[in-house]
Amino acid sequence: MPENIEERTRRLLLLLQAMRPNTRTPLSEFARLTGTPRDELVSDLQLLSMCAADQRDPTSFIPVLIDNDHVEVFGHLPALDKPVRFSISEARAVIAAMRVAGVPADSELHRKISLAAGSPDVAPEEIERRLHASSSLVSVSPYLSSLAFAAKHRRVVHMAYRRASSLSATNKNVEPLALMHEKDVWYVFAYCQSSLEVKTYRLDRIESLEVTEASFEPRAFDLPSSALPLEELPVARVRFGPDEKIAEREWPGIRVGTTEKDGSRIAEIPYAGSSWLAQQIVACLGGAEALSPSELREAVADLAGELIGGDDPGFADGQH
User: Fold this and answer.
1) I need a surface site. Which of 136, 179, 281, 302 has the fewest CB within 10 A?
2) Which pTM does this prediction carry?
3) Do 283 and 236 contact (CB within 8 A), yes or no?
């Protein structure tokens, strides 16, 4: 019979709770604790050894190995440093992954994560389709809109940036000037207040970013022909339903304006391309609607139609 995914997940979590840094424990003790046959236990421990808080950081992997019938935890356990917190979109993605893995929709684990997603009635089938289709979607940094907002309003940005040759990030204040997209990678041209020169930063190496209240004066520099001036980015108008949660981390640069009679809210969101914003809106599963511009409405309609198989005629005229 195929293994129960939910049961194995509980077993892995039990193993993590039992581990202590810099210890060497007989394999038989973990087998007794989990009630797991030796071969299955070895497989579980091998799986844990490949898990990491950040796949880019070799120091964040779970430091466990099997050596002569002993389980050796040879370092710190980074995955247990902080409590797990889900954003709405992250929790929905976990629900979808559970469905794909075969976890029943009526399981207790499914119910708790659904509540964490802020939408107990979310349709797992629709998210499952979205998960299967995700390989065809373009990945865009969530910091793109924040940089656009900062450049438009000439606000200094504080960010933690990790260079390719470094395992740790460096904090710095920069003045964003322009964006460039090349070979599926986004870059920002920004004046660094530490080095006193304009530098190019990859958005996928930004680990955290905050738009500060400090302002800056525009600086003259040679703008590459392929770069996009951030202050010229368009602003989308999006209507959020009364029950839809709006968080800055989900919608960087968002400015919530009027509230309609039915409780829905109209917001403005700067963006550098319809792809990322369309994905965010579709992920709300009806909780958000693109009002303008028309190109964004069309992008939402096309993406939603693709994810549900294009069999709903409402998507053809941009009604969703």
Assistant:
1) 136
2) 0.38
3) no
